[in-house]
Amino acid sequence: MTDFLTSIGYNHWILPVLLVLPLVGAAVVLLLAHARPDARDGEAADSEWSRSGAIRWATLIVFLLEFVLSVGLWWSYDPASPNWQAAVDWSWVPAWGARFTVGVDGISLFMVLLTTFIMPLAVLGGWTSIRDRLGAYYALLLVLTTGMLGVFVSLDLLLFYVMWEVMLIPMYFIIGMWGGERRLYASIKFFVYTMLGSLLMLVAILYLWNAAGGTSFAYTHVLHAASATGGAAALWLFGAFALAFAIKVPMFPLHTWLPDAHVEAPTAGSVILAGIMLKMGTYGFLRFAMPFFPGAALHPAIRTLMIVLAVIGIIYGALVAMVQPDFKKLVAYSSVSHLGFVMLGIFALTLQSVQGALMVMINHGISTGALFLLIGMIYERRHTRALDAYGGLARVMPMFAAFLTLVSLSSIGLPSTNGFIGEFLVLIGSFRTRPIAAALATTGVIFAAAYLLWAIQRILYQPLARPENRALRDLNARETTLLVALAVMIIWIGVAPGPILRRMEGSANRFVQLVQRGTPTGPMQASTEAR
Amino acid sequence: MLLDLARPGQLALALGPDIVLLVGAMVLLLIAVARPDSDEHQRAVGIGAIAVCVLTIAAILFYVGFGLEATPGMVAVDVFRWSADVIFLLGAILALAMSIDYERRQGIVLAESHVMVLLATSGMMLLGAARDLILVFLGIELMSVAVYVLSGLNRRSAAAAEAALKYFLLGAFSTGFLLYGIALVYGATGSTNLGAIGSWVARNGAMHSPMLLVGMGLLIVGFGFKVAAVPFHMYTPDVYEGAPTPYTAYMAAAVKAAAFAAFLRVWLEAFNNAGEAWHGALWGLALATMIVGNVVALAQRNIKRLLAYSSVAHAGYLLVAVVVGTTAGASAFVFYLLAYTLATMGAFAVVAAVAHTGERHIDLRDFDGLWRVRPWTAVAMAVFMLALLGFPIVGGMGFFAKWYILLAALRAPTPEVTLAVVVVLTSVVSAGYYLAVVMNMFMRSRPATAPEPGRVPRVTGVVIAVTAVLLLVFGIYPNPIARLVPSTTPATAAGPAPGTLAATARR
């Protein structure tokens, strides 16, 4: 496989192609929709339906193509090499020293694969639920993908910032145009929270650019300048980066946009928000905030504060999830809890805890994405998300019940599912440096079992009391297909996480050393210079 | 080629593009009054006026290609002047194009109005070139008088009459301040030439001359009125709301840009060494303008008033570039002016297109569900709003403009971190009202009672398309502007040309 990929020059074109393909797809979708851009529901003329079908299929094909292309990274990635891989470095704005530089390491590799894996499933999940303004909807999803992939692969700070901001707009429109009743409120809250953080980060980026001589935004170049800053400036700069990322994670107490956005977004939007976009915050900590300012990040007060907030997030998210009457809101709050594990793992700063944090990022994307997809499926049938509107669904929808149980167990972290690997690694990794925090965080796993099992019980088991639930159809072929894909990942990562851990070990190790040593010497430095 | 401005022939050569514009305006004025008013005639003169602007731009490009320079004198011959001129002319072309449609729709057949735009633009070009306070005054008057007339063009509208009167009274008042300031500065330094004032200030310092300090204060007030800085902004919402939409756009973009260009040049060339005297005042002015402009805009429901306050807010961002007072500040300033002019012109063009016949109030709610009925117009408006918000890619070069201002603030000899942070925080506030427009267009449904908006008039449609496309293209590929702008003020060049903005700024 590796030989084949080398023979077609895979590493030289894969990242630009992954970034450009969705944009081409968006243009195609808009062209398909252009004949009459207002494809409204109800006008079930034949031509109307065939065009909707064409738009959906075109989008799905682009996303499947993205996935198939990106899977090659799995083989072409060389875990032994400390270099940026599949790197491309093109000129962009020479006057300001901004370049189009992209590449992956063991951290971003899995974020890219997670994105390309989730996107086709998100499209399949919302296949029939979105009925109006299809062209715009799918074009926005495609543009969003470029933005998200761009965030994960950018190695130029200006490019990173541009991508970071760009992905905000499609999601804003997706929530605001296809969301639930409180969509206007949710979308503007989402936008303003994110923008507040990211603009302060922009000031910090410019400050660093200036401190680094004002000639280059290249990651390694800025990294040197950043870790050379000390004292109060480093604290402020770390604060600016950390705020932008903490809002995105979201860390307690900056999480309040999340329940609104997740609940009001259409199914695909929720899946993408939870599955991919939340990871950008933690990715930002791993890639930028902590390596740039190890002094500030390891400052005892700041480190303790972050760990305390992470633990509060774990417990608070779980407790609030437990009392939610709305299934989607329950899952939304469970995200706050899961992402708390990631933050704990990152700030505990041992190899195991960081690898665990990376695993939780992947697993949360798969499991929570699957939960939102499942919620979308019953919402489409019953148009309610209230837990007590259901009950006894296991009898009428056995397939649905089986998948929901499996996914919930993986989200709880049952051994031999993916969820176990990540949270277990975080807990044993952080127990070495932060035993009390780890002990408190463990309760989060227990609470997770409580809220999810209780929710399953109320939806699936209990008597089939409501007449409107008796006639529910079980999953159709499309829904089964996409859930099978997710279930395979859940079991595969749960049983054999070795290949994944092996690929991320080198990068996780470098991250830990980089932050602990406090100066950017060693492999990270060699990596870009070898490019 | 080095021009000797002491010789009249060469001075005339230095003013070449200005002369092209003025001669064109005179000829068009004769043509305009030669035939009875009719819509066709109005249209023909309008197209002629656009042609004159294009010709002037061609002349400027020729001058730039020729690489002219000049000895210190009354007018500057530098890239800052040429790039500012091109921005004014671009604004004039867009305003003319909009007004051709507007006058047809409103049944106003005044061919001379287009000539007025040309005259105002020649005043602006004078402001861009002026290296003498007398010339600054001339330019301001030439520009302002023409704009007073334009704002009251719609004689049948009481609101327009009110706007014109208000603008005239306050404008005349502010010119008084400016003139008095010029007199005091002359009294203190013995010259009206910016270079001479600059060397006087460098020799003697500013703090020991109360007359100079008061003069500078009055100049700040005078310029503050023209650029609509808080607290001298009070007239803008009423005037912008009452004036015909194409001329509102012209006022918000070009008039403000010209006043700013003169402001910046006076400050960089004459008072650059008097920083301790004015820094605090301008700093406070920038801060207040950003905060008040953005916060008050949040409360607006009328789209023209909203854009008026937005233009106040943008004056605050531009003031940051003046406060920074470095070469980077001047570069950021030109880049910002271009982005701001395109976005503002485009936004007003959309307002003009959405408005129905008759100058009725255009509320934010009139944009509800616009996407359903006029998708491309709505998308273009979203681009303008996001550009004014300073958003990358989808907001086009708006992002790089704001980015450049931040960069200038942080690269100043003493970094203006506070101002940079305020720029950022007020930008977040501005999301509140710019997004309100986007939200209404895309996320609210079109009320059943809403009338079908009229067809977008052809020329206005072209204005919308051109501004949106230019914004987007420069937002992805800013190299042509980024390359041009640093050479405005060659901070890294071998040596600054004598008598340019750069030479003074670098001292």
Fold and architecture overview:
The complex is a heterodimer of chains A (531) and B (507). Chain A has 531 residues and is mostly helical. Helices cover 76% and strands 3% of the residues of chain A. A two-stranded antiparallel ribbon of chain A has the order 1-2. In chain A, strand 1 and strand 2 (98-104) form a beta hairpin. In chain A, helix 14 packs antiparallel against helix 15 (327-348) and helix 15 (327-348) packs antiparallel against helix 20 (435-460). Residues 486-500 and 502-507 of chain B have low confidence and may be disordered. A two-stranded parallel sheet of chain B has the order 1-2. Helices cover 74% and strands 1% of the residues of chain B. Chain B is mainly alpha-helical and 507 residues long. In chain B, helix 3 (39-66) packs parallel to helix 5. Chain B has helices spanning 8-14, 16-34, 39-66, 79-106, 112-129, 133-151, 158-189, 194-204, 210-227, 235-242, 245-269, 275-298, 303-324, 327-354, 370-373, 375-389, 398-411, 417-442, 458-476, 479-484, 501-506, and strands at 2-3, 69-70. The longest helix of chain B is centred in the middle third of the chain and has 32 residues, at 158-189. Chain B is built from 21 helices and two strands.
Largest sheet of chain B: 2 strands, parallel
Please tell me how large the radius of gyration of chain B is: 22 Å
Shape annotation of chain B: globular
Count of DSSP-assigned helices of chain B: 21
What's the SSE pattern of chain B? EHHHEHHHHHHHHHHHHHHHHHH
Derived from helix and strand composition plus strand pairing, the structural class of chain B reads mainly alpha
